[in-house]
Amino acid sequence: MAHFDLNEQEQIATVKYFWKDWGKYIAAVVILLILGYIGSTGYNWYNAKQSAKAAQIYAGVITALNNGQDAEVYKITDQLIADLPSTEVAAMSAMQAAKLSFTKKNYVQAEKYLLWTKDKASDKSLQSLAALRLASVYIDQKKFDKAREMLKVKHDLSFDGLFYEGRGDMYIAMGDLNKARDAYKEGLQKAANDPSTQQAIQMKLDIIGG
Fold this sequence. Notes:
With about 210 residues, the chain is mainly α. It has helices at about 5-40, 50-65, 70-85, 90-105, 105-120, 125-140, 145-150, 160-175, 175-190, 195-205. α1 (about 5-40) packs antiparallel against α4 (about 90-105), α2 (about 50-65) runs antiparallel to α3 and α4 (about 90-105) runs antiparallel to α5 (about 105-120).
């Protein structure tokens, strides 16, 4: 087990607190951006009848989330996965259900929905995002071997910076500041065309003295 001086221990604790407190909100922003993109282009991918049906069902997911009806969120999501698995809406609903499960510390259920999205979603961005969220689920449980596996999966190239950022987060959780710095620095380079990701990574580097 690695040993750190008091300053390094404080740095590690600060980063862990930051991502425990804010990580889920940042993930939600990413999902909302994807929702907006898919909402504007979805009818180009699916026939109008199927898309309209899926969108109508998905509206129930949003309503249930807003009303704190967790069981209804899972019920509708399972319906979408069973009846309309090829739609982007099914994958988006699975991501929402996974996020809800994660906030409730129901890791088994979160893993189920994220694995389905990673393996079944037709959109590569959603597959990549699901793999990243799976890594977070495993990191939170200190299942670092599984987290490392997710962070090495084939993904959309536009997610390179985020995947290296995820590796940095994993090393922080493991208490290895040196490897975390290396991963974050690599992430900065990979995210050259993604200022928001660069800003987030740079913030973490600053916290750990990168």
